[in-house]
Design a protein that fits this description.
The chain contains one helix and 17 strands. By secondary structure, the protein is mainly β. It is globular. The strands form five sheets. Strands 2, 7, 9, 10, 11, 13, 15 and 16 form an eight-stranded antiparallel sheet that branches. Strands 8-14-12 form a three-stranded antiparallel sheet, with no helix packed on it.
Length: 171
């Protein structure tokens, strides 16, 4: 009976698989979801307006998204159809912090709301808050803003209700 119960629990707790289109044609993924490093020790929780230290006892943090190595100015396309919630600096008081210049896009999948973050963008962008962006539409250009060591795009998926980062399956 215990074996059957465990099997059922695993089935019901399987996370939703979210499949999205790639945001750029020119890329190499240099850091993936949950990669470990001493660099990614901080995570910003939008709902609490608070930076959280996420490093483990060994001093390592987990990468919360995907880094696409691409030249500065590369066109960035919407990975999914959805509404643009915000365009601008993650922290206007400190432009070298976090995602730097970013876009947050909201979308629904199977009745669940999601937030998609595009970070380290250049200041030349195409999307504005309130726009409905279609999958594949150019919404920004890659850059090197925020806490960044070189031109790249950071893409991060978060569950709308709990702000927890989530894995992406790229199409």
């Amino acid at each position: 009976m215990d074996g059957q119960q465990k099997s059922q629990d695993l089935t019901t707790s399987t996370p939703t698989v979210v499949k999205l289109k790639l945001p750029t044609n020119q890329y190499k993924i240099t850091s993936g979801y949950r990669d470990k490093s001493r660099v990614w020790n901080w995570h910003y929780d939008e709902s609490k307006n608070l930076w959280i230290n996420t490093k483990n006892k060994d001093g390592y943090g987990e990468h919360k998204g995907y880094d696409f190595l691409c030249p500065s100015g590369s066109p960035i396309r919407a990975c999914v159809t959805g509404r643009i919630l915000q365009v601008g600096w993650e922290n206007p008081k400190n432009e070298k912090q976090g995602f730097g210049y970013r876009i947050i896009q909201e979308f629904k999948r199977d009745g669940e709301k999601w937030l998609l973050y595009y970070g380290h963008l250049s200041l030349s962008y195409m999307a504005t808050s309130g726009d409905e962006a279609e999958t594949g539409q150019i919404i920004a250009n890659s850059g090197n803003t925020g806490h960044s060591t070189g031109a790249h795009l950071h893409v991060e998926l978060r569950n709308y209700s709990n702000q927890q980062p989530h894995e992406i399956r790229w199409l």
